[in-house]
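--- STAGE predict ---
source: upstream dedup step, 1 unique chain passed
mode: sequence only
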Amino acid sequence: MKWLNWNIKGNSALSKQQNLLQQCLAVWPRRGKTLLEINCGQGVFSPLLWECGFDLTVTELRPELRSQVAAIMGGRAEILAASENYLPFDDSFFDSVVLHLAAIDKKGIDIAVREALRVASSGLAVTFWNSASLAYALHRIQGSRSSWSGPVHNWWQVWRALKNTKVGRLCGTSTLAGPRSFWNGICPLSCCTRMLSLPFGAWGVIRLDLESARPVTPMPLKIKRPRLRSPQPAMECGSKNSLNSP
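--- STAGE serialize ---
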């Protein structure tokens, strides 16, 4: 998978992607939980996932990229060779899975989603470049000679592929709205390219929760303050002189 270059614009865009992914995965429990990252590329998201607290395993088909990930991660993650359409793991082997989609057609998307879902027991998050975005539309209209940063997919096509599994609950967000010139951190309008609730950003994450999300910190119960009763007269037993009585 081809990722953004490490220049000023790339770092600014990448930080927004990392923030979006971190926010999307915030509802997943992570202490003592395993996570598989599929198509990790050169490992731009792997350190973040490890720092989130997951017991991390990453897969990448190309050996040169696996070498880069190994140099970045050291012994913090298990690095294996595998493609998104065939994963050498048993069913429900991992608690959660992050799939960086690399398929180029609908059939490939369906296969990758089903295979990622097969090895996940609690949740699946799919990241991808969104063709239903202003940045990609301008890229096509202007006929830019530079290639796009990776395989591009229509948001609704990926959404339907996950919805057709008929399991769990779906939610999605995106980032990097507007033209690519806005992605630069120096640009005054770069604040408009952050997390979006609408699927119009150039990079999106769709999350499928297989189990009901559990809050990390339980909300405190609201208990009404007890009201003191109005003063009541003291009740006496027997006569006033009962203590002196024989």
